[in-house]
Design brief:
Helix content: 25-40%
Number of helices: 13
Largest sheet: 5 strands, parallel
Distance between the termini: 38 Å
Number of strands: 24
Shape: elongated
Strand order of the largest sheet: 5-2-1-9-20
Radius of gyration: 26 Å
Bound molecules: flavin-adenine dinucleotide, nicotinamide-adenine-dinucleotide
Structural class: alpha/beta
């Protein structure tokens, strides 16, 4: 369809971000009701649940990306996208400052975008807790670029370890893959890494195969705190079989280019300093608030007590503002920062905004009919009946229930074709782990993929890596 220009009689709805929250909103939003503007530095949606599989080439990264332009093409009305980063939000003047941070810049680099309604869905950044050396030396696992960096680094470590005359202790260091953070990101990555090694590297470079090691470091007494005790134990015992070394009650304090320094609590509670030499270090210790969000929070008095993101009310309105909503990892609504929550919040806002537009249209009709009633009192009864009908519709539409999160369960891949699942099942809970759960994990994630194109690409990647092995060429 041809590009529709903004309609001055409609409100401008500005959406920041192209992740789970914002894209779920866009998908369900009736865009004809608003002049929609989307701003994000990332011109695609990323299906994060399968990102750990991209670090080893089980899945190719483009299979889990969906261009925002393709998504927007299917929408009606005026929908514009700008590839830029929001750098500050003036909630009083209703303006967002945006900046083109891409490599190619034109004459226009920075500008203000006005809005009537704003949705903030910018997600979170990686937490480092200010631990020295983390930013400089480790890889994160949040974006496509991170997965590509890890994939390259694994092969670099392997090939360097296999280099002629490499001393044994250097081989051990290079082939020691350290993962910090025993949340689902760290656990899934450790599992994928071990699979890659067992299924491919071991066959291709057998001479170094006995020296490859994966260590997972977690500050708390156990990994995967959001799963039930039974599944935590199952994960820990599976990791033991897979020879992934879990170091719990171990808090990383410092990182250098070749070592991780940590404090480990012994059984007597006594703390001991340990040093792990590494070849690859993946840092997966959860979320931190983005500077854009931190800056906005510092300027809203009602956000003074909030630490982990924008405090929102039950309709996801940012506390202390008007016409500003927040979804996903940047919002604090009392739920975990997951895709499941972000997408339900996005869907909720789509329903809310669709209803608001209908409400306004009905109110306008009622106003028109009422004034016509005052001007020419001819068929009063018929017009009054019409007004009553509109008012009934209005009451029904206006009765929007607050946001309610419905937890479908937690799922995580743990390597060697096993997964763990805590699923809500007929008002109860079902905990399961193993190969059958793995098949369930695969089919669940496949069904959640953004598009049929993504689904086919992911199936193709799974088949390809099963039949021919993962591609180990270092790009
Ligand atoms: P995101 O999806 O992170 O999107 C944020 C968007 O904002 C991005 O498009 C970004 O480019 C954009 N942005 C950033 N800064 C700006 C700015 N200044 N201006 C404008 N736009 C900006 N959750 C699950 O429920 N199940 C899982 O299996 C699961 N697996 C995961 C695996 C990994 C490896 C990771 C990292 C996370 C996983 N999660 C999972 C968590 C889930 O991905 C997040 O909770 C979810 O992405 C949050 O959605 P969001 O829209 O808030 O943020
Ligand atoms: P997380 O916050 O869930 O876990 C981070 C872990 O790092 C914590 O257990 C913490 O104790 C540990 N940690 C922090 N500092 C440390 C230190 N200095 N030394 C050692 N350990 C330290 O983070 P995540 O795994 O990145 O997940 C982020 C969010 O995304 C969560 O809400 C999670 O549920 C979601 N997610 C879900 C899935 C899934 O459902 N399969 C997968 C990935 C992420």
């Amino acid at each position: 369809p041809p590009q529709v220009e903004p309609d001055p009689s409609k409100k401008t709805l500005l959406i920041l971000g192209s992740g789970w929250g914002s894209v779920s909103l866009l998908k369900k939003l009736d865009t004809e009701n608003y002049n929609v503007v989307v701003i994000s530095p990332r011109n695609y949606f990323l299906f994060t649940p399968l990102l750990p599989s991209c670090t080893t080439g089980t899945i190719e990264h483009r299979s889990i990306m969906e261009p925002i332009r393709t998504i927007l093409r299917q929408k009606r009305g005026s929908v514009k996208y700008y590839e830029a980063e929001a750098t500050s939000i003036d909630y009083e003047r209703k303006l967002v400052r945006v900046r083109d941070e891409s490599e190619v810049r034109g004459v226009a680099v920075e500008t203000d975008v006005p809005y009537d309604m704003l949705v903030i869905g910018v997600g979170a950044e990686n937490a480092t807790f200010g631990i020295p050396g983390v930013r400089e030396h480790s890889c994160f696992l949040k974006e496509i670029g991170d997965a590509q960096r890890i994939r390259k680094r694994i092969m670099d470590c392997v090939e360097t370890a296999a280099f002629k005359d490499q001393p044994p202790e250097e081989i051990d260091r290079l082939l020691h893959m350290v993962v910090v953070g025993g949340g689902p990101t760290g656990v899934e990555f450790a599992g994928e890494l071990q699979d890659f090694f067992e299924e491919d590297i071991r066959k291709l470079i057998p001479e170094i195969s006995d020296r490859f090691r994966v260590t997972l470091i977690e500050a708390l007494p156990n990994v995967l705190p959001m799963f039930s005790k039974q599944l935590i134990e199952y994960t820990e015992s599976t990791f033991k079989e897979e020879k992934i070394d879990i170091k719990t009650k171990t808090m990383v304090k410092k990182v250098t280019d070749k070592t991780v320094e940590a404090e480990m609590a012994g059984p007597d509670g006594k703390k001991e300093k340990v040093v792990f030499p590494y070849g690859l270090l993946v840092w997966a210790t959860g979320n931190a608030v983005r500077p854009l969000v931190k800056d906005l929070m510092s300027r809203i008095p009602a956000q003074k007590e909030s630490r982990r993101g924008l405090a929102v009310n039950e309709y996801l309105v940012v506390q202390g503002t008007r016409d500003v909503w927040a979804v996903g990892d940047c919002a604090v609504a009392g739920y975990a920062p997951t895709a499941q929550v972000a997408s339900q919040e996005g869907n909720f806002l789509a329903r809310l905004f669709n209803n608001m537009a209908k409400t306004e249209a009905l109110e306008e009709k009622i106003r028109e009919l009422s004034s016509s009633l005052n001007i020419k009192p001819g068929n009063t009864a018929e017009v009054s009946r019409e007004i009553e009908e509109y008012e009934r519709q209005l009451r029904r539409i206006k009765d929007i229930k607050p946001f309610h999160y419905s937890h479908q369960g937690s799922l995580a891949y743990i390597g060697s074709e096993k997964a763990v699942a805590d699923i809500s099942w007929f008002n109860g809970n079902l905990a399961s782990g193993g190969r059958l759960t793995f098949l369930f994990w695969r089919s669940a994630y496949l069904s959640m993929c953004f598009s049929t194109r993504n689904r086919l690409l992911v199936i193709n990647d799974w088949l390809k890596s099963k039949l021919f092995g993962r591609d180990v060429s270092r790009e």
